[in-house]
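Minutes, project huddle
Topic: does the predicted pose make sense with adenosine-5'-triphosphate bound?
PN asked that the exact inputs be recorded in the minutes so nobody has to dig through chat later. Recorded below.
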Amino acid sequence: MTRSAISALDVVHLDKTFDVSASFLNRLLYGRKRQMLHAVNDVSFSVPLGGCVSLVGESGCGKSTVARLVTGLYDPTAGEIRFAPGKSGAPLSAQMIFQDPYASLNPRWRVKNIIAEPLRELKLRNSEVEIAERVAELLGIVGLNIADGEKFPHEFSGGQRQRISIARALASEPEFLVCDEPTSALDVSVQAQILNLMRRLQDELGLTYLFISHDLSVVRHMSDRIAVMYLGRIVEEAETEVLFADPKHPYTRLLLETIPDVNEPHRDREVVAGEVPSPLAPPPGCTFHTRCPLAQAQCKAGRPELRDKPDGSRVACHFA
Ligand SMILES: Nc1ncnc2c1ncn2[C@@H]1O[C@H](COP(=O)(O)OP(=O)(O)OP(=O)(O)O)[C@@H](O)[C@H]1O
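Predicted holo structure (tokens), as shared on screen:
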């Protein structure tokens, strides 16, 4: 993994609110109020060029919304997303890899045409011969063969379909990939193969990754740094080794306790206690206090700021 002090991406005080109000008519007839959902709340982080930063948290914490903001699928409500210049001098552009490769691959197209589409759209190759050569090359890069190009997506397993999605993402020659739960629909053994492929591609092609997952064990071996999100905010961010060796936020500790133990795979691990509160009515103070084993009166009264720690981590907890 090439690590660099230069940022490929700086996300600064990013905010995204969604208007989830009832329709105008329902508001008029039934007096329903306007409701705004604060999905991403003052999120800042950087991704080093050639590195991998992961966003981790339970469903609904806002990690996919950050991914969609970074790839331009959503516009931010506030804050900035700054990409460094890429090899061409223009700002890096991000390509997204999704959780469900089947939903993101056109079922009626042969694989060779799915992978060729960005080459044609972006005019990256001049002739059909060059396009066919590049498609064959991309199939090889992700561990498929030329004959696979003649097949349709339904003829492949989930892991192979994710390889096709990766080949298509690579066709547009991105330098930055945003990977939203790319392995969570796959069996554990296949997950490892796809993660190994992604690490190899990162090294060979000098890619930079923003990785999204609900599972700390999935991102552990991919990430230089990990940011843990809870109800739209980063609650802890640290170098991967520091986060695993010395987790400081009680929420991070609870997430780590839910990782299956390889030595005792059949022992049930505790799930994080309690339900995530509704993001429409987040608790006052520290939004984690309703589930936190260490919560005191102070946690209900005031929200802890995300503070820098001497080991380079950032933590938002009154008692960290
Ligand atoms: N387009 C939208 N309109 C309204 N609310 C949305 C929209 N997209 C996301 N949300 C809400 O924003 C919050 C964060 O959602 P987001 O999908 O980013 O979380 P997540 O951590 O990625 O969860 P998951 O893993 O389930 O996708 C959730 O409460 C979700 O319901």
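Observations noted during the meeting:
- The pocket of adenosine-5'-triphosphate is lined by residues 18, 20, 37, 39, 57, 59-65, 214, 279 (CB under 6 Å).
- The domain at 7-93+174-315 is CATH 3.40.50.300 (Rossmann fold).
No decisions taken; revisit at the next huddle.
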